[in-house]
Amino acid sequence: MELSKPPPVRRLTGDEGSAPTRELANGWSAPPQPLEAPNNHAQSNGNGHHAASAFVSAPRRVAPASIAIDRMRVNDLSVSYGRKRAVDSVSLPIRQGEVLALIGPSGCGKTTLLRSLNRLTELTKGTSYSGQITLDDVDIASMEPTELRRRVTMVFQQPNPFPMSVFGNVAYVLREQAKRRPRRKEVRGAVHEALARAGLLDEVSDDLDHPALRLSGGQQQRLCIARALAANPEVLLLDEPCSALDPQSTKVIEDLIVKLRDDVAVVIVTHNLQQAYRVADYVAFMYLGELVEYASAQTIFGSPQEPRTRDYVSGAFG
Amino acid sequence: MSATALATAAPPDPPIAAPPPRRCDSSASWRLSDRLGLAVAWALGLFFCAITAAIVIYLLLEGLKYVSPHLLVTHPTAGFSESQTGGFLDPMIGTAIVALIAMAIALPVGISTAVWLSEFGRPTALARIVESTVEMLAGTPSIVLALFGAIVFESPVLGFLSQTTNHIVLGRSFFAAGAMLSLVGLPLVVSSVREGLQAIPSHVREASYAVGKSKTATTRRVLLPAARPSVITGAMLALGRVIGDTAIILVLLGSTLNLAGAGGAPLLSTLRGQGSTMTSYIYDNAPTGEGNQPEKAYAAAFVLLVIVLVLNVVVDFTGRRARRLQWS
Question: Between vectors from CA B184 to CA B244 and to CA B169, what angle results, nearest 5°?
């Protein structure tokens, strides 16, 4: 599929978080269409109006994005499990400075695409793929999996801290393989930094030696993010990171995701369109393994070009 | 009761009266066949509890009559009456030695087999063969293992493991008995550890791979610690089987009640020599046995039973504790 040309980096002024979208829309540097556009599709789809207005009324948290840098590029990627084709000739860029959300109905291949980015798909028996993925212009197929996965780390749907202390969970990632185990003192700084980046340090600074599985679900998930950040990755993959969490923890993590995008390229798979709307700069809509539409969040939610995207976003199926 | 509740809740009056509270867990509303099934299940459960309780209580009461602290610290000796034949210090030491040897072999071999089966398992054909071999081993009667052990340890190559005079290898020693007993414990360790590893959700493994960790690091630092309760459970179950086994002891440990060294360096002499364990002591002193000293047998059985009960409590405790901290 032809990649749509990335629009210019947008800079937003004004108070973040609380401002209604209508006002924020004026802050887009080059808005192709005002966000009220979904009303135009109301005839084609009875639900269109309601769903679209739900998005418009939801506040969009946007901090000023820095300059976007191309980190990864997916070229004509197809992945099959046995005979079943899960991802079908997908091409898209992944940029630092932006959050990319993969949306689509269940079984559309978005998780498979995400897992291909750090070659986790290889762990599933019977997986085959064609096409190419590059990380900083190097084909990831030619890299050591452990090296690649340190640069492209992943957070899962279920919070899954390892059965050790909070400190140990982060320190585990920092230990180089096949080398002397570093002392606690040597990694303390890096552990604290990772916990601070995940916004968890203040909450757990007294419980660093407690079992990580005693933390609350939201804290566990942020610990998993801290763990993923400790490796100092270039790309952070999030596979429905909030679907097991309460709204409060979800908000904390969404804020965190938006904050992280300046330092790492963030790719998030989500079932929750509202969440994609809140955190994503770019959205890729997938359906039955195909990439139907890749465009800025504004376009996908405001004026999708493909009828299938329009139907999905407005809630006609999903 | 449910019918009246439905009737009063029927819609004619706009303000619907709340139906009276109904116990949903009561079996009174069940079908007859379900109620019969429940009764049978209860009866069978109580029956088996009663049998177990009878054995334990009988042995504890009988044992308590005869057990006394000095039995635990005196060697067995020859004598004409039960008051002259001493205690069972040597069998207790024997049980400890045999258990140590068996577990020292069964634990590392069992854990590594389980890890290989669960985490690597390639080539698949080999994994399947190993799997059914372990299952077969679990089903082999220990007397068969004992016979096999007798043949193996009588071979001249293994002469250094038991008493050897004029190139004739006796083939009976703590080494021989412990080695064969490890085969009794091995399947229990393997299946328990394997179950523990397989109970770890796959996303936990992937989380470790997804931050750039190798399979070795993941297994050592994440999976085995997570499966620790299963390792302990497997070890305790195996230990229970090992110290309770009689056939292998009778065939491979010799027939002396006292520790009989094979000569040489002190500890090595004992390990290469013959002796007895609690089970062979009980066997020997049972009313139908050679020694026929029922009081000693009951006292020894009491001690053995207490040891096994303690092991069971440990298993239960670790299992319960482990369930508290788990992934959702």
Answer: 95
pLDDT in tens, chain B (328 residues): 444 554 455 555 566 667 766 666 677 778 889 999 999 999 999 999 999 999 888 888 888 888 888 888 888 887 777 777 788 888 999 999 999 999 999 999 999 999 999 998 888 899 999 999 999 999 999 999 999 998 998 888 887 788 777 777 788 889 999 999 999 999 999 999 999 999 999 999 999 999 989 898 899 989 999 998 899 989 999 999 999 999 999 999 877 888 877 777 778 888 888 888 999 999 988 888 777 888 888 888 889 988 888 888 888 887 777 666 777 6
Chain B residues closer than 8 Å to A211 by CB:
325
- Check if A164 contacts B (Cβ < 8 Å): yes
| Angstrom distance (rounded) from CA A105 to CA A298 | 20
* B274, burial (CB in 10 Å: exposed 0-12, middle 13-18, buried 19+): buried
Min distance A169 CA to chain B CA atoms (Å) = 10
Helix, coil or strand: residue A44: coil
Sign of the torsion angle spanned by Cα atoms B66, B70, B72, B74: negative
Q: Is the peptide bond before B123 cis (omega within 30 degrees of 0)?
A: yes
3-class DSSP assignment, residue A240: coil
Q: Report CB contact under 8 Å: A149, B221.
A: no
* DSSP code for A88: E
| Domain ranges across chain B | 90-279
**Tokens in use for B291?**
């020694």
Chain A touched by B75 (CB under 8 Å): no
3-state secondary structure of B29: helix
What does the buried/exposed string (b/e) look like for A255-266 if buried means 16 or more CB atoms within 10 Å of the residue's CB? bbbbebbebbbb
The minimum CA-CA distance between B118 and chain A, rounded to whole Å, is: 14
Give the tokens for residue B25. 């867990």
pTM of the full structure:
0.77
Which residue ranges form the domains of chain A, and what is each CATH number? 21-161+232-313 (3.40.50.300)
What is the CATH topology of the domain spanning B90-279?
MetI-like fold (1.10.3720)
Cβ neighbours around B275 below 10 Å, total:
28
Write the ipTM.
Answer: 0.76
Between A and B, how many CB-CB pairs are < 8 A?
84
